[in-house]
Amino acid sequence: MLTDLPAWKGLQAHRAAWNNVHLRDLFKTDPKRFDRYSPRLDELLLDYSKNLISDETLALLRRLAVEANVPAWTEAMFKGEKINFTENRAVLHVALRSDSGKPVFVDGQNIIPAVADVLSQMRVFTDSVRNGSWRGHSGKVISDVVSIGIGGSDLGPAMACRALKSYGSKQLSMHFVSNVDPNHIGDTLDDLNAETTLFIISSKTFTTLETLANAKIARRWLVEKLGSEQAVAKHFVAVSTNEAAVRAFGIDPANMFIFWDWVGGRYSMWSAIGLPIAVYIGMDGFESMLAGARDMDEHFRSDPVGSMPATLALLSIWYQHFWDAHSHAVLPYDQHLGRFPAYLQQLCMESNGKRVTRQGEVVSHATGEIVWGEPGTNGQHAFYQLLHQGTRFIPADFLLAATTAHPYDGMQQMLAANCMAQSEALMLGKTEEEARSELKAEGLDDDKIRLLLPHKVFPGNRPSNTLLYRELNPRTLGRLVALYEHKTFVQSVLWNINAFDQWGVELGKKLAGTLIRELGEGTPITGHDASTNWLASYCQRLGRDKSG
Ligand code: G6Q
Protein backbone atom coordinates (compact mmCIF):
# COMPACT_ATOMS: atom_id res chain seq x y z
CA MET A 1 0.00 0.00 0.00
CA LEU A 2 1.17 3.52 -0.86
CA THR A 3 1.05 4.67 2.75
CA ASP A 4 3.27 1.77 3.87
CA LEU A 5 6.13 2.63 1.53
CA PRO A 6 9.33 3.88 3.21
CA ALA A 7 9.37 7.07 1.14
CA TRP A 8 5.82 7.81 2.30
CA LYS A 9 6.97 7.66 5.91
CA GLY A 10 9.87 9.88 4.91
CA LEU A 11 7.46 12.40 3.40
CA GLN A 12 5.34 12.36 6.55
CA ALA A 13 8.35 13.27 8.64
CA HIS A 14 9.53 15.79 6.07
CA ARG A 15 6.19 17.61 5.93
CA ALA A 16 6.67 19.04 9.42
CA ALA A 17 9.70 20.98 8.17
CA TRP A 18 7.34 23.00 5.95
CA ASN A 19 5.12 24.40 8.68
CA ASN A 20 6.74 27.81 8.84
CA VAL A 21 8.26 28.11 5.41
CA HIS A 22 7.14 30.73 2.91
CA LEU A 23 7.85 30.49 -0.78
CA ARG A 24 8.76 34.17 -0.98
CA ASP A 25 11.64 33.45 1.42
CA LEU A 26 12.79 30.45 -0.57
CA PHE A 27 13.09 32.62 -3.68
CA LYS A 28 14.97 35.27 -1.69
CA THR A 29 17.50 32.87 -0.23
CA ASP A 30 18.02 30.67 -3.27
CA PRO A 31 18.84 32.51 -6.51
CA LYS A 32 19.08 29.22 -8.37
CA ARG A 33 15.63 27.99 -7.44
CA PHE A 34 14.05 28.75 -10.78
CA ASP A 35 16.93 27.18 -12.72
CA ARG A 36 16.59 23.92 -10.84
CA TYR A 37 12.84 23.64 -11.20
CA SER A 38 12.16 24.71 -14.78
CA PRO A 39 12.74 21.89 -17.29
CA ARG A 40 12.10 22.37 -20.98
CA LEU A 41 11.04 20.05 -23.72
CA ASP A 42 12.18 21.91 -26.79
CA GLU A 43 10.48 25.30 -26.33
CA LEU A 44 7.83 24.06 -23.92
CA LEU A 45 8.82 25.28 -20.47
CA LEU A 46 7.46 23.89 -17.22
CA ASP A 47 8.14 26.27 -14.35
CA TYR A 48 7.43 24.39 -11.13
CA SER A 49 9.62 26.57 -8.95
CA LYS A 50 6.59 28.17 -7.27
CA ASN A 51 5.84 24.95 -5.41
CA LEU A 52 6.25 24.07 -1.76
CA ILE A 53 9.18 21.80 -2.41
CA SER A 54 12.89 21.52 -1.84
CA ASP A 55 15.43 19.14 -3.34
CA GLU A 56 14.74 16.85 -0.42
CA THR A 57 10.99 16.87 -1.09
CA LEU A 58 11.59 16.02 -4.71
CA ALA A 59 14.03 13.26 -3.84
CA LEU A 60 11.49 11.70 -1.49
CA LEU A 61 8.67 12.00 -4.02
CA ARG A 62 10.78 10.44 -6.74
CA ARG A 63 11.81 7.65 -4.40
CA LEU A 64 8.12 7.11 -3.72
CA ALA A 65 7.55 6.73 -7.47
CA VAL A 66 10.35 4.17 -7.66
CA GLU A 67 9.01 2.26 -4.67
CA ALA A 68 5.55 2.25 -6.28
CA ASN A 69 7.11 0.74 -9.42
CA VAL A 70 6.29 3.60 -11.76
CA PRO A 71 9.16 2.66 -14.12
CA ALA A 72 7.98 -0.94 -14.48
CA TRP A 73 4.34 0.07 -15.01
CA THR A 74 5.42 2.61 -17.61
CA GLU A 75 7.27 -0.06 -19.57
CA ALA A 76 4.31 -2.40 -19.22
CA MET A 77 2.06 0.23 -20.79
CA PHE A 78 4.41 1.04 -23.66
CA LYS A 79 4.95 -2.65 -24.38
CA GLY A 80 1.25 -3.40 -24.64
CA GLU A 81 0.73 -5.50 -21.53
CA LYS A 82 -2.92 -5.76 -20.57
CA ILE A 83 -2.70 -3.31 -17.71
CA ASN A 84 -6.40 -2.48 -18.05
CA PHE A 85 -7.02 -5.87 -16.47
CA THR A 86 -10.70 -5.37 -15.57
CA GLU A 87 -11.46 -5.13 -19.28
CA ASN A 88 -8.60 -7.44 -20.28
CA ARG A 89 -7.15 -4.78 -22.56
CA ALA A 90 -3.81 -3.29 -23.43
CA VAL A 91 -3.48 0.50 -23.12
CA LEU A 92 -1.79 1.63 -26.28
CA HIS A 93 -2.75 5.17 -27.18
CA VAL A 94 1.03 5.69 -27.26
CA ALA A 95 1.25 3.25 -30.20
CA LEU A 96 -1.07 5.52 -32.19
CA ARG A 97 1.61 8.17 -32.29
CA SER A 98 4.76 6.09 -32.37
CA ASP A 99 6.75 6.32 -35.58
CA SER A 100 9.68 4.22 -34.45
CA GLY A 101 8.65 1.50 -36.88
CA LYS A 102 9.15 -0.89 -33.97
CA PRO A 103 6.43 -3.49 -33.75
CA VAL A 104 4.03 -3.46 -30.82
CA PHE A 105 2.15 -6.70 -30.24
CA VAL A 106 -1.36 -7.21 -28.99
CA ASP A 107 -2.44 -10.85 -28.76
CA GLY A 108 0.53 -11.82 -30.92
CA GLN A 109 -0.31 -9.35 -33.67
CA ASN A 110 1.80 -6.34 -34.62
CA ILE A 111 -0.63 -3.41 -34.48
CA ILE A 112 1.62 -0.79 -36.10
CA PRO A 113 0.72 -1.57 -39.77
CA ALA A 114 -3.01 -1.28 -38.99
CA VAL A 115 -2.42 2.11 -37.34
CA ALA A 116 -0.58 3.29 -40.46
CA ASP A 117 -3.37 2.00 -42.73
CA VAL A 118 -6.02 4.00 -40.90
CA LEU A 119 -3.85 7.13 -40.99
CA SER A 120 -3.55 6.70 -44.78
CA GLN A 121 -7.30 6.24 -45.10
CA MET A 122 -7.82 9.38 -43.03
CA ARG A 123 -5.44 11.30 -45.29
CA VAL A 124 -7.28 10.31 -48.47
CA PHE A 125 -10.64 11.19 -46.98
CA THR A 126 -9.66 14.47 -45.31
CA ASP A 127 -7.80 15.65 -48.40
CA SER A 128 -10.85 15.01 -50.52
CA VAL A 129 -13.18 16.92 -48.18
CA ARG A 130 -10.74 19.80 -47.87
CA ASN A 131 -9.92 20.10 -51.57
CA GLY A 132 -13.56 19.88 -52.56
CA SER A 133 -13.36 16.62 -54.48
CA TRP A 134 -15.65 14.95 -51.92
CA ARG A 135 -19.07 16.28 -52.87
CA GLY A 136 -22.44 16.05 -51.23
CA HIS A 137 -25.33 14.16 -52.83
CA SER A 138 -26.31 17.14 -54.99
CA GLY A 139 -22.73 17.80 -56.08
CA LYS A 140 -21.91 20.64 -53.72
CA VAL A 141 -18.69 21.05 -51.77
CA ILE A 142 -18.82 20.39 -48.00
CA SER A 143 -18.98 23.55 -45.88
CA ASP A 144 -19.99 22.18 -42.46
CA VAL A 145 -18.85 19.14 -40.53
CA VAL A 146 -20.93 17.90 -37.61
CA SER A 147 -19.21 15.50 -35.25
CA ILE A 148 -21.68 13.41 -33.28
CA GLY A 149 -20.21 11.55 -30.31
CA ILE A 150 -19.97 11.88 -26.54
CA GLY A 151 -17.38 11.63 -23.77
CA GLY A 152 -14.13 10.28 -25.13
CA SER A 153 -15.60 10.32 -28.63
CA ASP A 154 -16.32 14.04 -28.43
CA LEU A 155 -14.24 15.96 -25.91
CA GLY A 156 -10.83 15.45 -27.53
CA PRO A 157 -11.85 16.52 -31.04
CA ALA A 158 -14.05 19.34 -29.71
CA MET A 159 -11.24 20.64 -27.48
CA ALA A 160 -8.60 20.30 -30.20
CA CYS A 161 -10.62 21.93 -32.99
CA ARG A 162 -11.18 24.93 -30.78
CA ALA A 163 -7.53 24.95 -29.69
CA LEU A 164 -6.29 24.82 -33.28
CA LYS A 165 -8.65 27.35 -34.77
CA SER A 166 -5.73 29.31 -36.18
CA TYR A 167 -4.77 26.21 -38.19
CA GLY A 168 -8.27 25.24 -39.24
CA SER A 169 -9.73 25.37 -42.73
CA LYS A 170 -11.42 28.66 -43.51
CA GLN A 171 -13.83 26.78 -45.78
CA LEU A 172 -15.13 24.43 -43.07
CA SER A 173 -17.23 25.15 -40.01
CA MET A 174 -17.00 22.53 -37.30
CA HIS A 175 -19.91 21.59 -35.02
CA PHE A 176 -19.96 19.15 -32.13
CA VAL A 177 -23.13 17.50 -30.90
CA SER A 178 -22.91 15.29 -27.83
CA ASN A 179 -25.81 15.84 -25.43
CA VAL A 180 -29.03 13.85 -25.72
CA ASP A 181 -30.78 17.15 -24.96
CA PRO A 182 -32.69 17.66 -28.23
CA ASN A 183 -31.72 21.32 -28.23
CA HIS A 184 -28.15 20.35 -28.97
CA ILE A 185 -28.82 18.59 -32.26
CA GLY A 186 -31.83 20.81 -32.97
CA ASP A 187 -29.98 24.11 -32.59
CA THR A 188 -27.15 22.75 -34.72
CA LEU A 189 -29.33 21.48 -37.56
CA ASP A 190 -31.40 24.66 -37.60
CA ASP A 191 -28.43 26.57 -38.96
CA LEU A 192 -27.22 24.05 -41.54
CA ASN A 193 -27.69 23.35 -45.22
CA ALA A 194 -28.07 19.59 -45.74
CA GLU A 195 -26.53 19.76 -49.22
CA THR A 196 -23.18 20.88 -47.83
CA THR A 197 -23.13 19.14 -44.44
CA LEU A 198 -21.05 16.10 -43.55
CA PHE A 199 -21.73 14.09 -40.38
CA ILE A 200 -19.01 12.15 -38.60
CA ILE A 201 -20.58 9.67 -36.19
CA SER A 202 -17.98 8.70 -33.62
CA SER A 203 -18.62 5.89 -31.20
CA LYS A 204 -16.26 3.16 -30.13
CA THR A 205 -19.11 0.80 -29.32
CA PHE A 206 -21.73 2.28 -31.66
CA THR A 207 -24.29 1.48 -28.98
CA THR A 208 -24.16 4.71 -27.00
CA LEU A 209 -27.66 6.07 -26.38
CA GLU A 210 -26.86 9.75 -26.86
CA THR A 211 -24.82 9.30 -30.02
CA LEU A 212 -27.26 6.94 -31.69
CA ALA A 213 -30.23 9.15 -30.82
CA ASN A 214 -28.50 12.22 -32.27
CA ALA A 215 -27.25 10.33 -35.32
CA LYS A 216 -30.76 9.04 -36.02
CA ILE A 217 -32.18 12.54 -35.94
CA ALA A 218 -29.38 13.82 -38.19
CA ARG A 219 -29.95 10.98 -40.67
CA ARG A 220 -33.69 11.59 -40.81
CA TRP A 221 -33.15 15.34 -41.25
CA LEU A 222 -30.72 14.77 -44.09
CA VAL A 223 -32.93 12.27 -45.92
CA GLU A 224 -35.94 14.56 -45.57
CA LYS A 225 -34.02 17.59 -46.78
CA LEU A 226 -32.37 15.85 -49.74
CA GLY A 227 -35.28 13.59 -50.51
CA SER A 228 -33.24 10.43 -50.90
CA GLU A 229 -31.88 7.57 -48.80
CA GLN A 230 -28.95 7.44 -51.25
CA ALA A 231 -27.76 10.78 -49.88
CA VAL A 232 -26.57 9.11 -46.66
CA ALA A 233 -23.53 7.67 -48.45
CA LYS A 234 -22.16 11.12 -49.24
CA HIS A 235 -23.05 12.78 -45.96
CA PHE A 236 -22.31 10.22 -43.24
CA VAL A 237 -19.07 8.61 -42.19
CA ALA A 238 -18.47 6.64 -39.00
CA VAL A 239 -15.59 6.08 -36.62
CA SER A 240 -15.99 2.93 -34.58
CA THR A 241 -14.69 -0.46 -33.53
CA ASN A 242 -18.07 -2.03 -34.31
CA GLU A 243 -18.52 -2.59 -38.04
CA ALA A 244 -21.74 -4.58 -37.72
CA ALA A 245 -23.48 -1.78 -35.84
CA VAL A 246 -22.25 0.84 -38.32
CA ARG A 247 -23.66 -1.23 -41.17
CA ALA A 248 -26.95 -1.74 -39.33
CA PHE A 249 -27.23 2.02 -38.92
CA GLY A 250 -27.03 2.38 -42.69
CA ILE A 251 -23.51 3.74 -43.10
CA ASP A 252 -21.44 2.06 -45.79
CA PRO A 253 -18.44 0.34 -44.11
CA ALA A 254 -16.36 1.89 -46.92
CA ASN A 255 -17.00 5.18 -45.13
CA MET A 256 -15.95 3.74 -41.80
CA PHE A 257 -12.72 4.42 -39.95
CA ILE A 258 -11.76 1.83 -37.41
CA PHE A 259 -9.89 1.82 -34.16
CA TRP A 260 -9.32 -0.85 -31.56
CA ASP A 261 -10.27 -1.95 -28.08
CA TRP A 262 -6.76 -1.12 -26.83
CA VAL A 263 -7.58 2.58 -27.31
CA GLY A 264 -9.51 3.89 -24.31
CA GLY A 265 -12.28 6.41 -25.11
CA ARG A 266 -10.68 9.31 -23.26
CA TYR A 267 -7.31 8.47 -24.79
CA SER A 268 -8.64 8.21 -28.33
CA MET A 269 -8.17 11.60 -29.99
CA TRP A 270 -4.98 10.19 -31.56
CA SER A 271 -6.94 7.48 -33.36
CA ALA A 272 -9.58 7.86 -36.07
CA ILE A 273 -11.66 9.51 -33.34
CA GLY A 274 -9.48 12.50 -34.23
CA LEU A 275 -11.04 12.56 -37.72
CA PRO A 276 -12.83 15.89 -37.10
CA ILE A 277 -9.48 17.39 -36.10
CA ALA A 278 -7.83 15.98 -39.21
CA VAL A 279 -10.58 17.28 -41.48
CA TYR A 280 -10.32 20.70 -39.91
CA ILE A 281 -6.54 21.21 -39.72
CA GLY A 282 -5.50 18.78 -42.44
CA MET A 283 -3.62 15.53 -42.11
CA ASP A 284 -0.20 17.18 -41.92
CA GLY A 285 -1.41 19.16 -38.92
CA PHE A 286 -2.89 16.03 -37.37
CA GLU A 287 0.39 14.19 -37.78
CA SER A 288 2.19 17.14 -36.25
CA MET A 289 -0.11 16.78 -33.23
CA LEU A 290 0.81 13.09 -33.07
CA ALA A 291 4.48 14.08 -33.25
CA GLY A 292 3.99 16.44 -30.31
CA ALA A 293 2.50 13.65 -28.24
CA ARG A 294 5.36 11.40 -29.32
CA ASP A 295 7.88 14.02 -28.08
CA MET A 296 6.23 13.80 -24.68
CA ASP A 297 6.04 9.98 -24.79
CA GLU A 298 9.76 9.73 -25.43
CA HIS A 299 10.53 12.29 -22.75
CA PHE A 300 8.35 10.44 -20.24
CA ARG A 301 9.55 6.97 -21.10
CA SER A 302 13.17 8.02 -20.80
CA ASP A 303 12.64 9.16 -17.20
CA PRO A 304 9.35 7.91 -15.74
CA VAL A 305 10.02 9.40 -12.30
CA GLY A 306 11.86 12.64 -13.16
CA SER A 307 10.12 13.79 -16.35
CA MET A 308 7.60 16.62 -16.54
CA PRO A 309 4.51 14.39 -16.33
CA ALA A 310 5.94 12.48 -13.38
CA THR A 311 6.84 15.72 -11.63
CA LEU A 312 3.31 17.08 -12.04
CA ALA A 313 1.90 13.81 -10.73
CA LEU A 314 4.22 13.74 -7.73
CA LEU A 315 3.42 17.35 -6.87
CA SER A 316 -0.26 16.49 -6.92
CA ILE A 317 0.38 13.55 -4.60
CA TRP A 318 2.36 15.83 -2.28
CA TYR A 319 -0.47 18.37 -2.08
CA GLN A 320 -3.36 15.99 -1.97
CA HIS A 321 -1.99 13.77 0.76
CA PHE A 322 0.25 16.06 2.76
CA TRP A 323 -1.36 19.49 2.34
CA ASP A 324 -5.04 18.54 2.26
CA ALA A 325 -5.63 19.78 -1.29
CA HIS A 326 -8.83 18.42 -2.78
CA SER A 327 -8.86 20.01 -6.16
CA HIS A 328 -6.58 21.32 -8.84
CA ALA A 329 -7.26 24.38 -10.97
CA VAL A 330 -6.26 24.46 -14.64
CA LEU A 331 -6.09 28.05 -15.82
CA PRO A 332 -5.25 28.49 -19.49
CA TYR A 333 -4.34 32.05 -20.43
CA ASP A 334 -5.24 31.01 -23.91
CA GLN A 335 -8.79 31.43 -25.12
CA HIS A 336 -8.28 28.65 -27.62
CA LEU A 337 -7.88 26.26 -24.69
CA GLY A 338 -11.41 27.06 -23.55
CA ARG A 339 -12.40 23.36 -23.53
CA PHE A 340 -9.11 22.13 -22.11
CA PRO A 341 -10.28 22.06 -18.48
CA ALA A 342 -13.37 20.06 -19.51
CA TYR A 343 -11.18 17.68 -21.48
CA LEU A 344 -8.87 17.23 -18.50
CA GLN A 345 -11.83 16.67 -16.21
CA GLN A 346 -12.69 13.54 -18.11
CA LEU A 347 -9.09 12.45 -18.51
CA CYS A 348 -8.25 12.82 -14.83
CA MET A 349 -11.52 12.21 -13.05
CA GLU A 350 -12.80 9.29 -15.12
CA SER A 351 -9.37 7.71 -15.02
CA ASN A 352 -8.58 8.16 -11.36
CA GLY A 353 -11.98 8.46 -9.71
CA LYS A 354 -11.65 4.94 -8.27
CA ARG A 355 -12.16 3.64 -4.77
CA VAL A 356 -10.59 0.20 -4.92
CA THR A 357 -7.03 -0.88 -5.60
CA ARG A 358 -6.02 -3.22 -8.37
CA GLN A 359 -6.37 -5.99 -5.80
CA GLY A 360 -9.98 -4.94 -5.16
CA GLU A 361 -9.42 -3.52 -1.68
CA VAL A 362 -11.03 -0.24 -0.70
CA VAL A 363 -8.28 2.38 -0.69
CA SER A 364 -7.32 3.92 2.62
CA HIS A 365 -6.51 7.32 1.13
CA ALA A 366 -7.97 9.81 -1.33
CA THR A 367 -7.62 9.26 -5.07
CA GLY A 368 -8.54 11.32 -8.11
CA GLU A 369 -8.06 15.04 -7.77
CA ILE A 370 -10.99 17.24 -8.75
CA VAL A 371 -9.96 19.21 -11.83
CA TRP A 372 -11.63 22.45 -12.79
CA GLY A 373 -10.85 25.75 -14.41
CA GLU A 374 -11.63 28.45 -16.92
CA PRO A 375 -9.51 30.56 -19.18
CA GLY A 376 -7.83 33.60 -17.68
CA THR A 377 -8.47 36.44 -17.48
CA ASN A 378 -12.18 35.59 -17.20
CA GLY A 379 -11.54 33.46 -14.12
CA GLN A 380 -9.81 36.37 -12.41
CA HIS A 381 -13.08 38.28 -12.44
CA ALA A 382 -15.00 35.31 -11.14
CA PHE A 383 -13.46 32.72 -8.80
CA TYR A 384 -9.85 33.80 -8.20
CA GLN A 385 -10.90 35.53 -4.98
CA LEU A 386 -11.22 32.09 -3.44
CA LEU A 387 -7.79 31.08 -4.73
CA HIS A 388 -6.15 34.13 -3.19
CA GLN A 389 -7.96 34.65 0.10
CA GLY A 390 -10.25 31.67 0.57
CA THR A 391 -9.67 28.93 3.11
CA ARG A 392 -9.05 26.18 0.53
CA PHE A 393 -5.63 25.11 -0.59
CA ILE A 394 -5.84 24.79 -4.37
CA PRO A 395 -2.72 24.21 -6.46
CA ALA A 396 -3.02 25.57 -9.99
CA ASP A 397 -1.55 25.12 -13.44
CA PHE A 398 -1.23 28.21 -15.63
CA LEU A 399 -0.86 27.75 -19.38
CA LEU A 400 0.37 30.55 -21.58
CA ALA A 401 1.35 31.08 -25.20
CA ALA A 402 3.99 33.71 -25.91
CA THR A 403 2.49 34.63 -29.27
CA THR A 404 -0.91 34.94 -30.86
CA ALA A 405 -2.43 34.84 -34.31
CA HIS A 406 -4.14 38.15 -33.47
CA PRO A 407 -1.48 40.63 -32.35
CA TYR A 408 -3.85 43.51 -31.58
CA ASP A 409 -2.52 46.52 -29.65
CA GLY A 410 -0.39 44.75 -27.04
CA MET A 411 -3.28 42.56 -25.89
CA GLN A 412 -1.15 39.43 -25.83
CA GLN A 413 1.24 41.19 -23.44
CA MET A 414 -1.70 42.18 -21.26
CA LEU A 415 -2.76 38.53 -21.19
CA ALA A 416 0.76 37.30 -20.41
CA ALA A 417 1.25 39.92 -17.72
CA ASN A 418 -1.97 38.89 -16.04
CA CYS A 419 -0.98 35.24 -16.10
CA MET A 420 2.39 35.87 -14.52
CA ALA A 421 0.97 38.37 -12.04
CA GLN A 422 -1.50 35.78 -10.81
CA SER A 423 1.07 33.09 -10.08
CA GLU A 424 3.28 35.74 -8.52
CA ALA A 425 0.44 37.02 -6.33
CA LEU A 426 -0.58 33.53 -5.26
CA MET A 427 2.99 32.80 -4.26
CA LEU A 428 3.97 36.14 -2.67
CA GLY A 429 0.73 37.13 -1.02
CA LYS A 430 0.67 40.41 0.91
CA THR A 431 1.76 40.62 4.52
CA GLU A 432 0.03 42.65 7.19
CA GLU A 433 2.95 45.07 7.14
CA GLU A 434 2.71 45.58 3.40
CA ALA A 435 -1.03 46.01 3.57
CA ARG A 436 -0.72 48.54 6.42
CA SER A 437 1.84 50.65 4.54
CA GLU A 438 -0.38 50.69 1.47
CA LEU A 439 -3.38 51.84 3.46
CA LYS A 440 -1.29 54.50 5.17
CA ALA A 441 0.02 55.68 1.83
CA GLU A 442 -3.59 56.08 0.71
CA GLY A 443 -4.04 58.48 3.64
CA LEU A 444 -6.47 56.35 5.68
CA ASP A 445 -6.84 57.06 9.39
CA ASP A 446 -6.06 54.46 12.06
CA ASP A 447 -9.67 53.41 12.62
CA LYS A 448 -10.21 52.81 8.94
CA ILE A 449 -6.91 50.92 8.72
CA ARG A 450 -7.91 48.70 11.66
CA LEU A 451 -11.22 47.94 9.95
CA LEU A 452 -9.75 47.13 6.55
CA LEU A 453 -6.42 45.56 7.41
CA PRO A 454 -7.47 41.91 7.87
CA HIS A 455 -9.33 42.05 4.57
CA LYS A 456 -6.33 43.36 2.70
CA VAL A 457 -3.91 40.59 3.75
CA PHE A 458 -3.11 37.76 1.33
CA PRO A 459 -1.45 34.71 2.90
CA GLY A 460 0.34 33.76 -0.33
CA ASN A 461 2.42 30.57 -0.27
CA ARG A 462 -0.07 29.09 -2.74
CA PRO A 463 1.65 26.85 -5.25
CA SER A 464 1.37 26.80 -9.01
CA ASN A 465 3.00 25.48 -12.16
CA THR A 466 3.30 27.48 -15.35
CA LEU A 467 3.48 25.90 -18.77
CA LEU A 468 4.81 28.40 -21.27
CA TYR A 469 5.07 27.73 -25.01
CA ARG A 470 5.70 29.80 -28.11
CA GLU A 471 2.35 29.20 -29.78
CA LEU A 472 -0.53 26.81 -29.52
CA ASN A 473 0.17 24.86 -32.68
CA PRO A 474 -0.68 21.19 -33.31
CA ARG A 475 2.67 20.01 -32.00
CA THR A 476 2.36 22.01 -28.78
CA LEU A 477 -1.17 20.75 -28.24
CA GLY A 478 0.02 17.16 -28.71
CA ARG A 479 2.71 17.71 -26.11
CA LEU A 480 0.34 19.29 -23.62
CA VAL A 481 -2.32 16.58 -23.87
CA ALA A 482 0.24 13.77 -23.61
CA LEU A 483 1.79 15.55 -20.62
CA TYR A 484 -1.49 15.34 -18.73
CA GLU A 485 -2.17 11.79 -19.93
CA HIS A 486 1.08 10.59 -18.44
CA LYS A 487 0.60 12.67 -15.30
CA THR A 488 -2.72 10.89 -14.83
CA PHE A 489 -1.09 7.52 -15.42
CA VAL A 490 1.68 8.11 -12.85
CA GLN A 491 -0.91 9.17 -10.28
CA SER A 492 -2.84 5.97 -10.90
CA VAL A 493 0.25 3.84 -10.40
CA LEU A 494 0.98 5.56 -7.11
CA TRP A 495 -2.60 5.05 -5.99
CA ASN A 496 -2.48 1.44 -7.22
CA ILE A 497 -5.70 1.82 -9.20
CA ASN A 498 -6.71 1.00 -12.76
CA ALA A 499 -6.88 4.32 -14.65
CA PHE A 500 -8.29 2.75 -17.78
CA ASP A 501 -11.71 1.39 -16.93
CA GLN A 502 -14.85 3.37 -16.03
CA TRP A 503 -17.38 1.07 -14.41
CA GLY A 504 -18.69 4.02 -12.42
CA VAL A 505 -20.67 5.30 -15.38
CA GLU A 506 -22.67 2.07 -15.75
CA LEU A 507 -25.20 2.30 -12.93
CA GLY A 508 -26.70 5.62 -14.01
CA LYS A 509 -26.94 4.39 -17.61
CA LYS A 510 -28.85 1.30 -16.51
CA LEU A 511 -31.29 3.24 -14.33
CA ALA A 512 -31.80 5.77 -17.13
CA GLY A 513 -32.80 2.88 -19.40
CA THR A 514 -35.66 1.96 -17.06
CA LEU A 515 -36.81 5.56 -16.67
CA ILE A 516 -36.66 6.22 -20.41
CA ARG A 517 -39.04 3.33 -20.94
CA GLU A 518 -41.36 4.45 -18.14
CA LEU A 519 -41.44 8.08 -19.22
CA GLY A 520 -42.09 6.96 -22.77
CA GLU A 521 -45.02 4.72 -21.73
CA GLY A 522 -46.61 7.63 -19.90
CA THR A 523 -48.13 5.34 -17.25
CA PRO A 524 -47.86 6.15 -13.51
CA ILE A 525 -44.34 5.70 -12.21
CA THR A 526 -44.29 3.90 -8.88
CA GLY A 527 -41.41 1.45 -8.87
CA HIS A 528 -38.67 3.70 -7.46
CA ASP A 529 -37.99 5.54 -4.24
CA ALA A 530 -40.45 8.35 -3.39
CA SER A 531 -38.18 11.09 -4.68
CA THR A 532 -37.58 9.48 -8.07
CA ASN A 533 -41.26 8.47 -8.44
CA TRP A 534 -42.30 12.05 -7.73
CA LEU A 535 -39.76 13.70 -9.97
CA ALA A 536 -40.69 11.43 -12.85
CA SER A 537 -44.43 11.83 -12.35
CA TYR A 538 -44.22 15.59 -11.92
CA CYS A 539 -42.06 15.87 -15.03
CA GLN A 540 -44.66 13.85 -16.97
CA ARG A 541 -47.41 16.12 -15.69
CA LEU A 542 -45.59 19.34 -16.55
CA GLY A 543 -44.81 17.98 -20.01
CA ARG A 544 -48.46 17.02 -20.57
CA ASP A 545 -49.73 20.40 -19.32
CA LYS A 546 -47.46 22.16 -21.81
CA SER A 547 -48.43 20.00 -24.76
CA GLY A 548 -52.11 20.26 -23.70
C1 G6Q B 1 -14.11 7.26 -22.06
C2 G6Q B 1 -15.37 6.66 -21.73
C3 G6Q B 1 -16.58 7.34 -22.31
C4 G6Q B 1 -16.86 6.99 -23.76
C5 G6Q B 1 -18.27 7.46 -24.11
C6 G6Q B 1 -18.61 7.21 -25.55
O1 G6Q B 1 -13.04 6.85 -21.73
O2 G6Q B 1 -15.33 5.32 -22.01
O3 G6Q B 1 -16.53 8.74 -22.19
O4 G6Q B 1 -15.91 7.56 -24.59
O5 G6Q B 1 -19.18 6.82 -23.27
O6 G6Q B 1 -18.56 5.87 -25.84
P1 G6Q B 1 -18.62 5.38 -27.32
O7 G6Q B 1 -17.42 5.89 -28.02
O8 G6Q B 1 -18.65 3.88 -27.26
O9 G6Q B 1 -19.86 5.96 -27.92
Describe the structure in your own words.
There is one protein chain. The chain is an alpha/beta fold. 48% of the residues lie in helices and 10% in strands. It is built from 22 helices and 13 strands. The strands form 3 sheets. It has a 6-stranded mixed β-sheet, sandwiched between helices. Strand 10, helix 15 and strand 11 form a beta-alpha-beta unit. Helix 1 (6-15) packs antiparallel against helix 4 (55-67), helix 14 (308-322) packs across helix 20 and helix 18 crosses helix 19. The N and C termini lie far apart (61 Å). The mean pLDDT is 97. Glucose-6-phosphate binds next to loops.
List keywords for this structure.
binds glucose-6-phosphate, about 50% helix, globular, 22 helices, about 10% strand, about 550 residues, 13 strands, alpha/beta
Summarize the structure.
This protein has helices spanning 6-15, 23-29, 33-36, 55-67, 70-78, 112-130, 155-163, 182-190, 209-226, 232-235, 243-249, 275-281, 283-302, 308-322, 340-352, 384-389, 411-428, 432-441, 446-456, 474-495, 506-521, 530-547; strands spanning 40-41, 44-47, 105-106, 109-110, 144-148, 173-177, 197-202, 236-240, 256-258, 327-333, 370-372, 396-401, 464-469. The chain has 548 residues and is α/β, with parallel strands linked by helices. The strands form 3 sheets. It has a 6-stranded mixed sheet with strand order 1-2-13-12-10-11, with helices on both faces.
